[in-house]
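This part of the workshop introduces the protein records we will be handling. Getting from the letters to the tokens is the skill we practise here. The record below serves as our worked example for the rest of this section.

…
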Amino acid sequence: MRMTAAAPPRTGRRKVLLAPVTVTPAKPLTPSHLKGLLWTDVMFRATAPLADVTFRYSPTTYHLTEQTLGFWEFLDRTEPDLPYAALSEEEIGELYVRFRACAPPPAAALRPYAHQVENEGWVHPASERVLGLWRGHYARLGMHDPGLTAHQPPGLGTEEMIERLVALGLGLDQRSSGGPVYLDATRHGLPLRQIVTADGRPNYLACALRELLPLAPAHDEVVLLYDTELDADYRLLHRVLTQLGPLVHRVPIGRVPIDGTIRSARHGGWHAHTAGALLRAVGTEADADVRRLGVRLYFVAVLGPGQAQSFRTELLHRSLDRARQLLGRTTERGPGTPALVDDLRRHRRDHTHVDPYRLTSSLLARARRTIDRDLLSTVYL
């Protein structure tokens, strides 16, 4: 078995890379999406006082996937004259549902789109519109915007990524004989996984490798946050990145069932449960601090890491009421005090990053009489 030398110890603050799964900008944000985004936001803001944190969330990197390029090709072929800048995310999402119900387009139809993305940083007007609307949701929910509308290309091209993977002993490139490219971790007991088709189309995992292979070695710890249904792919990604030196942690986050059923957004049925609908349900009577703390109490502490509980509007409102109570009994200890750092460190377990569930659940402890205002301002508001 090939052994990889451990990275030399670094001095000073540890460096942490947060790499959550990205959401395809083709539909509304649903409760499942919001749960993952809010978990990542709490982790980022809670870990930042303790370490140097890189929050890598680049829609640009994943525009090359077939589901995104295919959607854009479908729109230009079937609805070339729609005023996308004036559509709602629900209207664009309905078009996405129509696209996913069709047969995928041929590779040749996607190549011009891939060329524009790679060489010009082009984004279809429909996805530009969705990303702009998401920025508004982020602002109302007080979430850090890691660059939703920024051009953030990955550090490696597809060819460079494949070369590095092969050099690590984890790539199987069969293109010379007309075959695909595989991520091959079979010697570690993991299944063979195709990442680039024989006709050159990369999947989500290939795009993630282009982004994370050059970033991971510069960090002490890498945290992968993702939907539990992607666990097989993220086990493979964990294996690859570990071989580059950093400690790698996987944080699977369960989806949020609607009326007891977990459904992908590509099937529709989300109209009453989008981020916009949720914000309307919260209502204008909730001030910004109550809204921001309340949704985090609900999606992080109440729903927890699993996926057993369905979305319930009454529990969301109960969390808003609890947020209002907590905000009414805060204490001021001064920004940057050791007490804040101690509060955060208690919820790290055996890693550098802060566990969002443990930290947020601690706010709801019955024995906790007061809440540090600095903790709330730093992490939740």
Q: What stands out?
A: The longest strand covers residues 221-227. The chain has one domain: 20-379.
